[in-house]
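look at this one:
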Amino acid sequence: MRKIAALYAGVSYQYRSWNEPKYNRYLSDILYIPELTETSFDEYDVIIVPSRLHAGLLERITPWIRRFADNGGTVVLFWPQSSDCVPLQNWEDRPTNFWWWLDKDAKSGLELQQPEHNLFKYLTLEDATWHYHGVFWPPAGAEVLITTEDNGAILYIDKVSTAGTWIVTTLDPEFHYGSYFMPATERFLDGFFPWLAEGSIA
């Protein structure tokens, strides 16, 4: 099993998500961001950067995240983070439809691009469907797994920008699960954690 650390900024939704027993068993450590140093990530295979991080905290640790990836580590980023943090991130903000599922003939607009990918042995498109706040246009060579109908990326894996692996998504499952709403986010995390720990990321 991969050695995974989740970053923690002291907010309630992160605390609940990272300490939920069925998810916590996949975590080697929960790292409190204000106490991190430039070598804090060295012993891990994967670090998870949660959504909605304070910009100042993220700015402080960005060089260390990039160093971790440059050394071959895997970085998971929920939500669009700073472009200084994510290599070659190309983010397009879009209006969010929180209530699309109430529309007649409701359709999320999300599509699987690689249904054969190992991730989808652990979760389904429906598990990754609640709402989104925009899309990425990833670098050439990135592996795009979930998109909108116009091919904007909702979830992609970038193994081309650095020596490491970047799993980047517009989704914010730990925010909604930790805030006690949005049932799909629990299903997403139920599949995502075991895939991240034991599945084939390649």
Remarks:
- The mean pLDDT is 92.
